[in-house]
Amino acid sequence: xxxxxxxxxxxxxxxxxxxxxxxxxxxxxxxxxxxxxxxxxxxxxxxxxxxxxxxxxxxxxxxxxxxxxxxxxxxxxxxxxxxxxxxxxxxxxxxxxxxxxxxxxxxxxxxxxxxxxxxxxxxxxxxxxxxxxxxxxxxxxxxxxxxxxxxxxxxxxxxxxxxxxxxxxxxxxxxxxxxxxxxxxxxxxx
Amino acid sequence: xxxxxxxxxxxxxxxxxxxxxxxxxxxxxxxxxxxxxxxxxxxxxxxxxxxxxxxxxxxxxxxxxxxxxxxxxxxxxxxxxxxxxxxxxxxxxxxxxxxxxxxxxxxxxxxxxxxxxxxxxxxxxxxxxxxxxxxxxxxxxxxxxxxxxxxxxxxxxxxxxxxxxxxxxxxxxxxxxxxxxxxxxxxxxx
DNA sequence: GATATTATCTAGCGTTGCTAGATAAATAAT
DNA sequence: ATTATTTATCTAGCAACGCTAGATAATATC
Lengths: 190, 190
Known about the structure:
Chain A is an all-alpha fold. Chain A has helices at 2-29, 36-43, 47-50, 57-82, 86-103, 105-112, 127-140, 147-166, 175-187.
């Protein structure tokens, strides 16, 4: 069975190379530059091989997004762990969120902006998505009764900050002030 | 000069037909269905004619977005005017924002999600964009000293609500509760 | 060694945004 | 009134896209 196992490993490794290439190209040149031909070139196989791994281009973007969610929830959890007091944790997580969005712009775009079939708050929600939500909920929980409600609102505000800043519609310089305002509002919720 | 004037009018009218067609197709079938060929078909001219009106496809999307901003700020201003008390106005505007985003999804997408060169908070900001910001600022102003800061935050939260709800990532049923939470937080700002 | 299966490739379809070069129509100059 | 010039428009096509059918090579099975 060892040959079959090696083949399986090779396949998995090739699939990972596709995802990695997509991620690198997206980060450097934007998602428009991530074409099937370009990826095929990068992994040194013909284009149809990609379709033996992924149903279509969107599935490749989704695979990158999943990777992103893993790192994202790790970053948020870390931020919460490093901060001591509860209010500090809230602010640390909010800052970590915005830092992630800014320094992994293409990744964040795949996760939250580009059309995708990945869903939240549904039975078929991917565990990676759940983990990210849980990381936010954890730092919000001490301040409220309806955790889900406040977490959704916290998340939405952060997403709005990230998006409007990315598209140059709010002032980058006021970032900390906005975070402070948000954290203050949440920590004073009944 | 009357012939030249008529020509100018005809041209302007044709340009408007392009924008209108783009808007209708986007609303019915999504922005991917808005192709140059399709628009050319719709206005019954050849494709190159479109490029005598707009530099490229993105410019057509931007033209639709500008229309959207006009209607958007009108909707927000109306909501504020119809509401009496200040807190009520805040909530009315928040609700109007989300209703607009939901019932004009393609328009909202052109305004805030699709890549565009339209900018906020810059010297070259379009007046249509300024008006929308001003409409939000007007209802926020009574509750805070730093109006710009709180308006940005208000806006970001609403944008996050709209986007996360559109992509199925927060619960549509909790919409009113989230608005109430946001309005409560803003109206208690020092 | 013949047969079936799997892995991969070449070649191409239909569509996209966009443009060069040709043609027809309107205007200006003689 | 005829010619020249500018303006408006079209036909045709390029390069690139996502994706796939059908052919070929490599591997496994009998």
